[in-house]
Amino acid sequence: MTGVRDLKYRQWFRSADVDGDGVITCQDVRLMGERYVAAREAAQRPATARQLVEGLEAFWTGVIAPMDQDGDGKVDLREMTEGFQRALADRTLYPHQVGPVADCYFDLIDLDGDDRIDLEEFTEIFSLTGNVSPEDCAAVFEALDRDGSGGLDRAEYHQAVAEFFFGDDPDAPAVHLFGKVTA
C-alpha cells in the first residue's frame, strides 16, 4: 500500500461519510446512492435506480461492512483504510467488487443515454454529489478523456475507477476522481 492510495481512500471516505459524523454506516451508503438518484432524477428510470441500490447494498455487505473490526455497525477511517488495503489488494477482483456498482453509476451519470459521459454530465454529478468543484471536475475530466473525444466511454470510466481504487501513481489521471486529494 502506498501513501497515495491512503490519501485517495481518505478522500473517498470524506465523500462516503454523507452525514459527516466521522464513520461510514449502511445508512451513509444508502444516502450516497440517493444523492446520485436524486441528482439524476433516476426515479424516472426505476430499473437503474434499483440496480444502484442493490449494487450499493452488495458493496456495503461484501466490501465495507466486513471492515467493521469492532462490530459496532460503523466503519471509521482507520477501519476503512485497512479494509480497502485487504479487500482491494487484487485488481483482478475489480469486476466483482467494484465493477457492478461503477456500471450503475455510469448509467446514472450518462443522463442522455448515449453510452458516454460528457463534461457537463460529469461536472453535474461530481459537483452535486461528490463535492468536487466545477474547476476540479473539468481538470479531472480532461485528464480522464485520454483519447480527447470529449466524452468518457464505459471502458474509460472503468479504467478511471479501477485506477482510483487500485493505482499507486500520484500523477495518474484518476487520483482526484472523488475530489482533490490532499495530504
UniProtKB/TrEMBL annotation:
<dbReference type="InterPro" id="IPR018247">
    <property type="entry name" value="EF_Hand_1_Ca_BS"/>
</dbReference>
<feature type="domain" description="EF-hand">
    <location>
        <begin position="132"/>
        <end position="167"/>
    </location>
</feature>
<dbReference type="InterPro" id="IPR011992">
    <property type="entry name" value="EF-hand-dom_pair"/>
</dbReference>
<feature type="domain" description="EF-hand">
    <location>
        <begin position="67"/>
        <end position="90"/>
    </location>
</feature>
<feature type="domain" description="EF-hand">
    <location>
        <begin position="4"/>
        <end position="39"/>
    </location>
</feature>
<keyword id="KW-0677">Repeat</keyword>
<dbReference type="InterPro" id="IPR039647">
    <property type="entry name" value="EF_hand_pair_protein_CML-like"/>
</dbReference>
<dbReference type="InterPro" id="IPR002048">
    <property type="entry name" value="EF_hand_dom"/>
</dbReference>
<feature type="domain" description="EF-hand">
    <location>
        <begin position="97"/>
        <end position="131"/>
    </location>
</feature>
<protein>
    <submittedName>
        <fullName>Calcium-binding protein</fullName>
    </submittedName>
</protein>
<keyword id="KW-0479">Metal-binding</keyword>
<dbReference type="GO" id="GO:0005509">
    <property type="term" value="F:calcium ion binding"/>
</dbReference>
<dbReference type="Pfam" id="PF13202">
    <property type="entry name" value="EF-hand_5"/>
</dbReference>
<dbReference type="Pfam" id="PF13499">
    <property type="entry name" value="EF-hand_7"/>
</dbReference>
